[in-house]
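A.,

Following up on our hallway conversation. Structure tokens first:
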């Protein structure tokens, strides 16, 4: 359950039972708990509508709400194929994805599929029921439906970039005969994403206040729409839409590290975040586990994955005015450098790399989301989906592709200068394209949720694609890059879904 809607959590279980998880699965045979809520008794009040919206947001955590499924299934499946990290091969989570040896039974992609369709099904029911609710003002209906469309678009963004060939479901079905849809084309899914976001942005609020801070806003819809255009290489439309976000009331945080330590949640740089509370009352467990998973064994963590050597080498070139690594580098990784420090629970302080190098199991670690926390490393710090630095870099990319390289450099330098890196100057369009793709974005956004692998995906998959994922992985020393085949550009359609829905075709090569 997300922080912004914690008032509703006492009856969330009933809401989830009511609205269910729409997936191409056999969940439809579960019997409704009629002692709690029914279809006719639920959709009566504004609180009911907000509880349903809360459930739609909750799928961001995973369809089950499990902090473990969120990290060890969904996050790792989205992250491990990329070139900015290597997994700890002693751990099983998404290990076969990282080595490009997975089968159609891999659990990570299945959890992405299941959670996305859970959120889509919940959004569809809101869009079906809320227009007929007499208890809501038209303004309230518009805002709630706008957020539902935004969330539906975001979940379809997961699906179309991960699987491409997926069912496009825009109504909430209860008839078993309609629960096994076929697949739409990627173009049809992208068109629906664009429609949902275009309609959502005009209905959503510019900002929420009080207990509702953290709900998606007009800026989030604009940013995701700009990103959708970018993924389709609609450069002019991407430039125009992202320019609208740049003109809004967002600003880079003064301290880069505050994006990850919980001190600036839903702040000036936040465009959209997954909300966590850390609440453990009444049987809840509303925490995330990044802190534990990225911290070294020597510091009490599990060190599930590490920055790749290519990323560390690239970060060493991101320097300040005197040639030392920039502030954003020191805030992102813990590595063999005199200025590198990381928090240790044993000493309850930041320790220098050189002082503990002999105790470490690995020569380099990620530092984002790893900080002082007093509850066994699990905490309620939010996880960013889109932040303003990402918007500026996407905007710069669109400007550069539209031949406005000098303007693009200005936007990139905003991000560099905040992170303590010297500004760029004098790059050609081609040079800046490479700089954005293989320095600025990975250095600024390394290991952040759902970013690097899908950048690599879009740069190969676009209509004017200029580079091969396999070549990039090989050039950047990705372990097991020799195993990569074209089929690994996409996840396989989960075997569990293929087995129960004869209308689904497997992705090529699987």
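Then the amino acids I'd put at each of the 510 positions:
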């Amino acid at each position: 359950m997300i922080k912004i809607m914690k008032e509703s959590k006492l009856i969330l279980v009933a809401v989830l039972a009511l609205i269910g998880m729409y997936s191409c699965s056999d969940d439809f045979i579960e019997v409704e708990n009629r002692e709690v809520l029914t279809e006719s008794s639920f959709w009566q009040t504004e609180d009911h509508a907000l509880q349903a919206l809360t459930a739609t947001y909750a799928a961001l955590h995973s369809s089950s709400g499990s902090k473990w499924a969120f990290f060890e299934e969904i996050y790792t499946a989205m992250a491990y194929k990329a070139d900015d990290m290597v997994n700890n091969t002693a751990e099983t989570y998404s290990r076969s994805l990282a080595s490009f040896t997975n089968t159609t039974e891999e659990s990570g992609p299945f959890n992405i599929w299941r959670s996305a369709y859970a959120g889509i099904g919940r959004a569809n029911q809101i869009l079906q029921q809320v227009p007929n609710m007499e208890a809501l003002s038209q303004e309230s209906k518009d805002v709630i439906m706008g957020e539902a469309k935004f969330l539906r678009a975001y979940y379809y963004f997961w699906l179309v970039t991960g699987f491409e060939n997926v069912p496009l479901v825009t109504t909430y079905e209860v008839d078993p005969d309609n629960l096994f849809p076929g697949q739409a084309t990627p173009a049809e899914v992208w068109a629906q994403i664009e429609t949902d976001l275009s309609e959502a942005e005009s209905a959503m609020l510019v900002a929420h206040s009080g207990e509702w801070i953290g709900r998606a806003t007009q800026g989030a819809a604009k940013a995701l729409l700009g990103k959708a255009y970018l993924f389709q290489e609609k450069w002019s439309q991407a430039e125009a839409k992202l320019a609208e976000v740049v003109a809004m009331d967002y600003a880079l945080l003064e301290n880069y590290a505050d994006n990850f330590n919980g001190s600036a949640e839903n702040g000036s740089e936040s465009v959209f975040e997954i909300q966590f509370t850390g609440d453990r009352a009444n049987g809840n467990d509303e925490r995330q586990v990044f802190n534990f998973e990225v911290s070294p064994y020597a510091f009490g963590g599990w060190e599930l994955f590490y920055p790749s050597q290519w990323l560390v080498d690239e970060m060493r070139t991101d320097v300040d005015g005197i040639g030392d690594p920039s502030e954003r580098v020191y805030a992102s990784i813990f590595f063999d450098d005199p200025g590198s420090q990381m928090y240790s629970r044993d000493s309850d302080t930041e320790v220098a790399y050189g002082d503990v190098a002999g105790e470490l199991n690995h020569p380099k670690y990620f530092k984002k989301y790893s900080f002082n926390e007093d509850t066994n490393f699990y905490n309620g710090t939010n996880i960013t989906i889109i932040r303003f630095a990402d918007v500026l870099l996407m905007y710069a990319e669109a400007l550069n592709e539209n031949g406005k390289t000098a303007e693009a450099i200005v936007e990139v330098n905003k991000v560099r200068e905040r992170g303590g890196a010297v500004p760029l100057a004098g790059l050609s369009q081609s040079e800046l394209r490479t700089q954005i793709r293989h320095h600025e974005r990975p250095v600024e956004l390394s290991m952040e949720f759902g970013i690097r692998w899908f950048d690599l995906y879009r740069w190969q998959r676009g209509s004017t694609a200029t580079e091969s994922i396999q070549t990039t992985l090989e050039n950047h020393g990705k372990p097991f890059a020799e195993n990569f085949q074209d089929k690994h550009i996409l996840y396989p359609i989960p075997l569990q879904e293929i087995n129960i829905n004869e209308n689904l075709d497997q992705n090529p090569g699987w």
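Residues 163 and 388 are 27 Å apart (CA to CA). Curious whether your intuition agrees with the design.

B.
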